[in-house]
Design brief:
The structure holds 2 protein chains of 2 kinds. Chain A is mainly alpha-helical. Chain A is built from 9 helices and no strands. Chain A is globular. The two termini of chain A are 24 Å apart. Chain B is of the alpha/beta class. The chains are: A mainly alpha, B alpha/beta. Chains A and B meet through helix 1 and helix 4 of A and strand 5, helix 2 and helix 4 of B. Chain A: Keywords: Membrane, Transmembrane, Transmembrane helix. Chain A: It comes from Microbispora amethystogenes. Chain A: This is ABC transporter permease.
Amino acid sequence: MTPVIALTRFRVAGYVASHRALQPLLALLALLAILYAGAVPAGQEIAATADSAAMLVPVLAWAARGLLDTEPDEQRAVALSALGGREPVSGLLAAFASLLVLAAIAEAALLARLAGSPTLGVLLTGVWLHLLSVAAGLVLGALTSRPILRSPAVSTMALIFGYLWMLALSFAGARWLTVPVMAWMRDAHHGVLLEQPLLLTAQSLLWPAIGLAAYGWLRRTRP
Amino acid sequence: MRIASVSFRYGRRDPWVLSDADLVLDPGDVAEVAGPNGTGKSTLLRLAAGLLRPVRGRVEDRPRVVGYAPERFPADQPFTVAAYLRHMAAVRRVAQDAIGHWSERLGMDHLLGRDLPDLSKGSAHKVGLAQALLAEPGLLVLDEPFAGLDAATRAELPRIIAEISARGGIVVVSDHQGDLRDFPGLRRFEVRDRAVRELEPVEKAGEAPLTVLEVAVPAVRAAELADRLRAEGCTVRVTARVAREAAE
């Protein structure tokens, strides 16, 4: 086991044992209860998938921030002394793993509430969109975590407004200026989501990639 | 290892904590960093350990394996002592046997099954020391390592430091209480006025005659003066007397 993986395991274990993992899980379950109060009618599977992925972003961001902030600052210093510049990588991996679990629960709930049997296309579209959602949530959570924003109030506001900004910009049709979460929903409801999947993937991963680079750069001076 | 013209401040609007600080440590060196509270001792230690990045200047030739024990071990974590140390041993890629070895030497075998948040300050401090020692560091940075330790561990720690030094490791210690004062070959540094300067080695009793001064000082300044005198190499005992008595 590499040191980075060992530290990732330590962080996930600490997150789960601290019960902080429960907060976003409960929020997710509440969201799913609202989304799937009624069964998803036939023909609406892709649209429901896009709605789920788009609405999941703030919950995933909250979970990522919670995982990264569970560890006391001095413990992060100890980890930094052991791993040096690779320490943030383990935090991101641990957060990514925990978000995959939440996204899998959301995807499973969606599939369970479909009126008909899911096709392979619906299944793959669900995995694809939820992975894009995980990427957006991971970066938003990381950029609002304690090493970057010390104040919990500022961090919470940044997380909420970060998501609202994402919604507002993508609602205005700016697909390259943010993660186009509104475009996911709009395209899915209009039946054109799968026309240019590569383009939409590039648009959806551009800002998470920039955000990750920014997080790495900021962490150099913010241990 | 060389700290070369290092300047550091925590933010653009914050004052400089260190300015153009230089420090060269050779393999086997044991360095004690002294100075009044809030002058930047912990900052210097964190820069040496690589936890902080200098705003200007650089730290060169830092040994590859670094052990760091913070002044206050973060005990608010949901692990038992044994589980925590197992995780840290895995992170350090050292055999789990090392946990038993260091637990025994630091007198903490009986704590292994305890939850970290239930530990006393001194016991938690031992866990912090154990995780720093697990990896046989080439650079060991200890922030106030003697605070809260029991007598047996206070006596053992200098022996551990001597072993690390003997195999060519560098040990940097901030120590208010002067527990390393008699350590052979100890290099002493003082952080003051944003600079680091090396102090003269402490003269051994017998090499130079000692005398006792009685100094009366306002109670609020006592700790600061005591720190300053300790940094100068004096042995200081603070006794609580009323001001009038002391002045007489």
